[in-house]
Amino acid sequence: MNKPVAAVVNTALQNLLGERFTTVDAVRQQHARDASHHLPHSPQAVAFPHSNDEVCQIVRLCADQRVPVVPFGTGTAVEGGIVATHGGICVDLSQMNAILRVDNADMDATVQAGVTRKQLNKHLDDLDSQLHFPVDPGADASLGGMAATRASGSAAVGYGTMRENVLGLTAVLPDGRLVRSGGRARKSAAGYDLTHLLVGSEGTLGILCEVIVKLVKKPQAVAAAVCPFSSIDAAVAAVQDVMSHGIPMARIELLDEIQMAAVNTYSQLDYEIAPTLFFEFHGSATAVDEHAQAAEHIAQCHGAHQFRWATERAARDRLWQARHDAYYASLALRPGSVGYVTDVCVPISQLASCIARAKEALKQTTIPASLFGHVGDGNFHVVFLIEPGNATELEEVRQLGQLFVEDALAVGGTCSGEHGIGLGKIDALEQELGQGIEVMRAIKRALDPHNIMNPGKVLRS
């Protein structure tokens, strides 16, 4: 962004937003990176809108001057999707955090994009509602950011991803137009599915301002369990067997022995250091008991060690918080490191062989690495702990990450199960989609001909 253009845009946005527009270095640096290894790039300025109309005005001003726009939620993603590689204006939606409507009868809610998942669930608790929002990526991410990245997490095996849980959106397009897509009906055959074009678009086609999400009934009973195995192959075989028997699972997670050691230290727990499954069952008391017993029996058939059950909420919360903190627990294994996270997802039938090949490949490196994932839907991650600025280590883990991607694609999987593409997986996306990339480029050009909306993400600039 050249200086005359910057001055024009800055003056106009200062007049529009007052103190909610800033060029202060400290604020710009806070918006320069996400939780990933990608190098930070500060935007020229940060805007904090309060309304859809303000977002429209911000985008129109930027569109008129061809200034890049980078939407920002909570900064908890791991593929560099909010790094301002082309400069421009960061639009921080955190102050658009109103819960606009909750409907108990229809089990849905409309929220502004800055509302976080924990905020929504606390609001539902405060209303004494029997509903909750089930998508749980671990971090207390904003619902707008979760929709933009098509997030999922540990509960996806039971409740689906953001793709299945977003009914409609309000978004500002790259020319400043406000559009609404979808609605509160549970199905529609009305024209192109604009809602699910924008879900997962990572801010490259517009800024999501409002989200209509599905809610679900809180389960009558919940039980969680931790179960170690003698080998990772046995643990994955148990997962496949549980899923093939049709046992309803709310969550089923795998942590390898390295990750379990990290979790124990970081969260002050005392679990066995072994490949481990975390289970959670939801439903009526009778159903939970039956499903838990069935899963325990299957696990024991695969040589599982003793189940440790957590039925009280405090114990379950501590268990799952430890799982959610797995990324930060990994980082603690190498103080001062940054995480390079892989994110492949494969058909369940191919999970065991893909994980086995990944673990074998990890023997080639001395860089610390742990493996964990949402294995109930075939999604697993390897977190490499690399030294910041070490180009040799970065290249080594990139090659290993590419190996995992190629293996996943060869068995009908995908290069990104939940983290999105951002900066880090553009090559992998091109490899996965082939000519489909040109279709995506055509859509991008049609909606954003001047490439101002989060440029350099998802598609190569």
Describe what this molecule looks like in 3D.
The chain has 461 residues and is α+β, with helices and mostly antiparallel strands. It has helices at 3-17, 25-30, 52-65, 117-126, 143-149, 156-159, 162-165, 194-198, 232-244, 257-267, 285-301, 313-324, 326-332, 348-362, 391-410, 426-433, 436-447; strands at 21-22, 45-47, 69-72, 89-92, 99-103, 108-112, 131-132, 166-172, 178-182, 207-214, 216-217, 221-228, 251-255, 276-283, 308-310, 338-341, 344-345, 369-374, 379-386. Strands 12, 13, 14, 15, 16, 17, 18 and 19 form an 8-stranded antiparallel beta sheet that branches. A 5-stranded antiparallel beta sheet has the order 5-6-10-8-9. β8 and β9 form a beta hairpin. The radius of gyration is 22 Å and the shape is globular. The chain starts with a helix and ends in a 14-residue tail after the last helix.
Query: What's the total count of β strands?
Result: 19
How would you classify the helix and strand content by structural class?
A: alpha+beta
Q: Tell me the CATH topology of the largest domain.
A: Uridine Diphospho-n-acetylenolpyruvylglucosamine Reductase, domain 3
Strand content: 15-25%
Characterize the main sheet: 8 strands, antiparallel
What is the rounded Rg? 22 Å
Averaging pLDDT over every residue, what do you get?
95
| Total domain count | 4
Estimate the global geometry from the Cα principal axes.
globular
Q: Can you name the CATH architecture of the largest domain?
A: 2-Layer Sandwich
Helical percent range?
Answer: 25-40%
Number of contiguous helices: 17
